[in-house]
Design brief:
- The longest helix has 13 residues.
- The chain has a domain of about 35 residues.
- It is elongated and about 80 Å long.
- It is mainly alpha-helical.
- It contains four helices and no strands.
- The N and C termini lie far apart (about 85 Å).
């Protein structure tokens, strides 16, 4: 019977404790009307363009898009 032994170098290896990840910084959120302008992104603008092109002959859809774009109503 062959018995293998663990090498002493492996037993002496230091054990590294798991360190907790540093907390992530929260993004700064703008307030009020500036938030509305900041949250408008290219994807939303592209979606609106596609909807306007697709439904350009339907005035009800165009009015709904206009109302949705104006934050005051």
């Amino acid at each position: 019977m062959i018995v293998r032994t663990i090498r002493p170098a492996l037993l002496a290896a230091p054990v590294v404790a798991q360190q907790a990840a540093p907390p992530r910084a929260e993004p700064v959120k703008p307030a009020g009307a500036a938030a509305v302008k900041t949250l408008t992104c290219d994807a939303v603008a592209a979606d609106e363009r596609r909807l306007r092109q697709r439904y350009r002959s339907d005035p009800a859809v165009l009015r709904a898009l206009d109302r949705a774009r104006d934050p005051d109503g």
